[in-house]
Write a structure and sequence with these properties.
Blueprint: E1 4-6, H1 10-20, H2 26-44, E2 50-56, E3 61-67, E4 71-77, H3 81-90, E5 95-96, E6 98-103, E7 110-116, E8 125-129, E9 132-133, H4 137-147, E10 153-161, H5 163-172, E11 177-183, E12 186-187, E13 193-194, H6 200-205
The structure holds 1-O-pyrophosphono-5-O-phosphono-alpha-D-ribofuranose and uracil (URA).
Length: about 210
Amino acid sequence: MSDILLVKHPLIDHSLSILRDRETDTSCFRRHAGIVSQILIVEATRCLRTRARTIQTPLTSCEGAALDQKTVVVPVLRAGLAMLMTIQDFLPDAGVGFVGLERDEETAVAREYYQKLPEIAPDDQVLVLDPMLATGGSLDDTVTILLKKNPGSITLVCVLAAPEGIARIQDRYPGIKIITAAIDDHLNEKKYIIPGLGDFGDRYFGT
Ligand code: PRP
Ligand code: URA
């Protein structure tokens, strides 16, 4: 079974409620999407390997640490870009790849329109950024693409996840970790997450 980490934090509860609120305007939506993304990314990088490093402070020397594992981040276009902005503050050296997928409004089946990935080594940790895990189709396709590159690990980082999408990923890819701020109730007949927050990309980019 793939791992699920539901991140509980008062700042997430607060920001997620603002994201869900239909009255929230674009600038406020962006700010709180950034806060939730930052907390999720802190959790997603918790197991990154470090090595010891001796450093000189202005007063003495002491043992410190340096990151010793490469991270590659893959935002799923377009909404995943919202999370990329925040991860670059934490991991300015991370490789960045892009997968562009768009759901058909009638069928909710995702169509790939773009793909550009960096080299990925067997030791690398890949973080896939997609705020919404609904049917799981977009992340299913993204994982299929990434597995061909044989990364060390793949972690899916989502703001909201629906049980249907979680079940699909768990069924298709045992061992892949999902980190999310909330597991919602179900999908409606148009495959939107309920209660959800609507269309994340439209609300974040003000479309
Ligand atoms: C949204 C969202 C996910 C996808 C999730 O993208 O950002 O990528 O839907 O749905 P799924 O789990 O059923 O595949 P959308 O296709 O609306 O494109 P956008 O990011 O350009 O808005
Ligand atoms: N994509 C979104 O942006 N919202 C949903 O509820 C489902 C897919």
